[in-house]
């Protein structure tokens, strides 16, 4: 045996001291090595869906950086491979075949919204790959693909559950409402939500005094609001997308509406720019949402994600607050990550089996998938904007501005009525 | 009477021209070669990229029959294209037929739509005709949005059949082969029209409709024939779309990209000849497809516009025009 010199002993002691001073977590998180795990998808970075596509991509990048900084996935770095689908479904099949055949990605996820998810399905199904989607409504009802998993809080019983929160809040008012007006955009998502409202209104014995869908080309919303006013409903359920939501709420403000309750899946205030633009017009509006910065709706990692997202969003000029899509987009990746870690290898069948069998802890809370890949328990939030003053952004960062009214377990405030569009 | 005799002009050798039959046979041979080459390549992505490009070859060639040969600019290409797509959805749902019969139905529907449009609008000329065709697109989209049988505004899912037709190894390969055949057939049809009396008549009415009418060209009848054939071919281009993506919804089927590309591609390639739309479509669609999977940003949306502006300024008669001028 070779004897240790005094110099060698000194070196060994220095190395031992250095090893002892390095935190245990850092030692466990060795830099990932080996070929990267490539995750492929299309994302709408231009066109009509880009407003939500860009924040989703930013959330994905945050996730990838975090995973890589903590040692990667299965010891390998993760790499995101994505292409801009231009918000056009026709681009999607080509992108997914390129991702799978040419780029040889290991895993695939979806881009944002039903119109982008559905055209990817045949390609993904042909290769028997597990597929985690983002904000798709009822995509798998026709395909019935057993490796499809949806990150969308609406669940699979949209008709029975989507408008339940809105109706429960309305029926708890004193006096109870007796009539309802239904206004919705003529689109896939809003047809489904209006169907739910119609179904539940009938169950609650509400008289439907107005029930019309408006075409996507509508630019003047004053006639719609006037017609609703003329029907004199107690409550108004509206389904709309951002440009229409702004038009409808501005028309409501100009016509000085006064309804006991108004709202629904009015997608628009979810985007920071529209929150700021509408300001006090939002007061007392009851809006379907997926997240609100309330103390009752905090899960491990939610606040950290938002805090990490906001400075990056400011730098990249995308949605400033990131309360709508980013948490769900991050959760989409967490589902994939947790399944891969549990399975321990990239095996599509095993990943799908794991996703069906086990639950997931995500930044939007615990979730579990049913046979169709939808959430076993829907989590439609109904929130109300309260006390909005002016058009400053800081009021929307803090609790109390967008209180949660439903479901009961996340409730953070009480309903204020009537809705008068800021008047 | 003068004794001077006019010397006989030496007989010029007749330019060698390919007959219709030979061109059709040549097109069929090229189509077979292309199918074999793609099969040998064996990549699903190659199938998709080729289908994407060939779909535009059919659409641009169809547009050129009315827009290029007859000089009637049709802004409603997306309407005919979507009519084909929705015929596949409706016929597939009602009768459970496979793609090939649906394409035949789409041709009939597109032809009827073209004839109807022709009867209603061909008394209009220039910008007025173009606006009328744009209206057709809006009207048709409104009908589809309100027609729940084909999915309405929700869109419709069309699940690909599980059995892949022999001798193809995948349904994408079969779809690609169908598009190759359709593209070859559409080019052969366009070339046959161009070199026939019909083509000469269309060229006459493009140059001066009043003069052509005075010279005995039956302009209205020729225009109706052109709108019918053009409409049928554009609908044929759209018929495989639902099976390509398994999902079709009005906003994407009536997308502005189809209308713009259908016009831009023949303009870039050259409108006077069957080769123009082919060159324009291959160039522009390949560029767009390549940009989608490389640049991957909003920049690729600018490609059509920039290329179009460059060609309108530098080569107003398209790429074909550049070569002719040099010759």
Automatic annotation (TrEMBL), chain A:
Keyword terms of this UniProt record: Amino-acid transport, Signal, Transport
Lineage: Bacteria, Pseudomonadati, Pseudomonadota, Alphaproteobacteria, Acetobacterales
Organism the protein comes from: Muricoccus pecuniae
Range of residues in the leader sequence: none
SUPFAM superfamilies noted in UniProt: Periplasmic binding protein-like I
GO biological process: amino acid transport
CDD domains from the UniProt entry: PBP1_ABC_ligand_binding-like
Residue span, Leucine-binding protein domain: 36-370
Protein's name according to its UniProt entry: Branched-chain amino acid transport system substrate-binding protein
Family: Belongs to the leucine-binding protein family.
From TrEMBL, chain B:
Signal sequence bounds: none
Subcellular localization(s) per the UniProt record: Cell membrane
Pfam families (alphabetical): BPD_transp_2 (PF02653)
Major localisation: membrane
Keyword Membrane: yes
Name assigned to this protein: Branched-chain amino acid transport system permease protein
One GO cellular component, as annotated: plasma membrane
Domain of life: Bacteria
Keywords: Cell membrane, Membrane, Transmembrane, Transmembrane helix
